[in-house]
């Protein structure tokens, strides 16, 4: 049966090949976006980790080995053409002073290191506008290990201990902090644990769930189109078990091809995805990484899910092969389908004026309302389609519009199913864009105090 299923999927003419290509392409897009979502979660954490060392002079004593010779440390913000710039003034008190990541040694008096983005600005901007602020000469660039983003504007300037110790805000640092800001209650630079939870909840809720729904819908529609052929096999003696095996093989072939292509789509689009300033600053391409467990789960999970969905889509064939050819007008959907949607809107509206005190409470309130509205849209969609089709038929001035309205009203569930995936994608994209831009506008970039 497995070999026969492969022949049906690959060697039964142009129709089979076209169906395989279309479904594989749809799966490739879904898998590529799914991998991008997972990699985006990793990228947020990697970027946040590179903010850790900037908190070294702000949290007091840090765990870990301490250098024999402390250094003087003064971190402050500066601006150039509206862009935030981190300026770190340091002074070594001895040869064993700690060294921040990204540079080989501490700069001496009259020396400084600049990030690549700031170094480029120093070369293209007049000294009176930018360069005159920094004493000394550039002796190198700051490496990526110390930069949250390729666009980070950062400079590390060397001074003598006597000079920097006179500054009122300068402190002595004996070790470089490596604790992730998400795990550091005293860190004020980077995204704290609450912020990370909020960002990841938005990613998971706004992207992951709809993508899985879209992939499942594509697989189910592909299986449903093969119902009649499988019903004919039942009539000539095929058993339900044999039909299940054939269906699983065909679905798995397209899912495997789509999964492999989706991995290629992800790596092809990774540079473009890294340029999206999801946290206010774009990522390094290497931040969008995938772990072995992530790849294994996707590679195994997507084909397995496709096979399960295909089996569920063929329940009528399993019960009776004649059931496929029986077509009756389904009962029209009722207005009670609006209940879940209304509950989600009421829940969100209530918490607008009664915001929970804690971040976790706010996340829970947001996610509950978001999921309720998303489920409500799916549940209410057929009823809304029925209402819209009746309005279309009632206002039709041409035969084509009247026929379209009547046919849509005859089976609004099927009509809505054809656009439900697009509807969900538009909904979650609009919500995610609004939430993310609001976070960035209200909180600023992760370098701001939290």
Your description of this structure?
The protein is of the alpha/beta class and 450 residues long. The chain has 13 helices and six strands. It has helices at residues 2-10, 14-49, 116-124, 161-164, 193-224, 227-235, 240-274, 292-313, 315-319, 338-353, 359-395, 399-410, 412-443, and strands at 71-80, 83-92, 111-114, 137-141, 154-158, 171-173. The protein has a six-stranded mixed beta sheet with strand order 4-3-5-2-1-6. Helix 2 (14-49) packs across helix 7, helix 5 runs antiparallel to helix 13 (412-443) and helix 7 (240-274) packs across helix 8 (292-313). The protein is elongated. The chain starts with a helix and ends in a 7-residue tail after the last helix.
How would you describe this structure in keywords?
450 residues, 6 strands, elongated, alpha/beta
């Amino acid at each position: 049966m497995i070999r026969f299923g492969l022949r049906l999927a690959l060697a039964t003419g142009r129709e089979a090949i076209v169906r395989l290509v279309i479904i594989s392409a749809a799966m490739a897009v879904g898998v590529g976006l799914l991998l991008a979502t997972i990699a985006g979660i990793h990228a947020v954490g990697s970027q946040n980790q590179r903010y850790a060392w900037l908190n070294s002079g702000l949290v007091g004593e840090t765990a870990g080995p301490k250098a024999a010779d402390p250094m003087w440390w003064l971190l402050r913000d500066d601006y150039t053409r509206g862009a935030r710039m981190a300026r770190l003034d340091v002074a070594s008190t001895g040869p064993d002073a700690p060294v921040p990541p990204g540079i080989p040694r501490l700069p001496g008096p009259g020396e400084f290191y600049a990030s690549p983005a700031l170094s480029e600005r120093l070369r293209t901007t007049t000294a009176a506008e930018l360069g005159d602020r920094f004493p000394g000469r550039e002796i190198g660039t700051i490496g990526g290990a110390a930069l949250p983003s390729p666009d980070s504007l950062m400079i590390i300037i060397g001074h003598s201990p006597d000079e920097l110790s006179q500054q009122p805000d300068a402190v002595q640092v004996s070790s470089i902090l490596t604790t992730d800001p998400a795990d550091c209650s005293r860190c004020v630079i980077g995204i704290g644990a609450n912020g990370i939870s909020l960002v990841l909840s938005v990613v998971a809720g706004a992207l992951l769930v709809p993508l899985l729904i879209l992939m499942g819908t594509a697989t189910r529609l592909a299986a449903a189109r093969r119902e009649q052929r499988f019903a004919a096999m039942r009539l000539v003696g095929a058993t339900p078990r044999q039909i299940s095996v054939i269906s699983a093989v065909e679905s798995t072939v397209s899912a495997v091809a789509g999964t492999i292509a989706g991995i290629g789509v992800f790596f092809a689009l990774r540079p473009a995805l890294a340029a999206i300033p999801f946290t206010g600053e774009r990522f390094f391409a290497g931040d969008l990484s995938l772990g072995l467990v992530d790849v294994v789960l996707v590679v195994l999970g997507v084909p397995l899910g496709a096979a399960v969905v295909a089996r569920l889509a063929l329940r009528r064939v399993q019960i009776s092969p004649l059931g496929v050819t029986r077509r009756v007008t389904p009962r029209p959907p009722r207005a009670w389908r609006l209940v879940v949607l209304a509950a989600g809107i009421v829940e969100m509206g209530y918490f607008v004026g009664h915001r929970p005190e804690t971040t976790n409470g706010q996340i829970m309130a947001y996610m509950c309302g978001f999921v309720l509205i998303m489920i409500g849209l799916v549940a209410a969609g057929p009823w809304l389609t029925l209402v819209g089709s009746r309005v279309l038929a009632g206002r039709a001035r041409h035969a084509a519009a009247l026929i379209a309205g009547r046919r849509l009203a005859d089976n609004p569930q099927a009509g809505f199913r054809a656009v439900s995936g697009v509807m969900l994608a538009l909904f979650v994209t609009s919500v995610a864009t609004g939430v993310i831009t609001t976070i960035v506008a209200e909180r600023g970039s992760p370098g701001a105090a939290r």
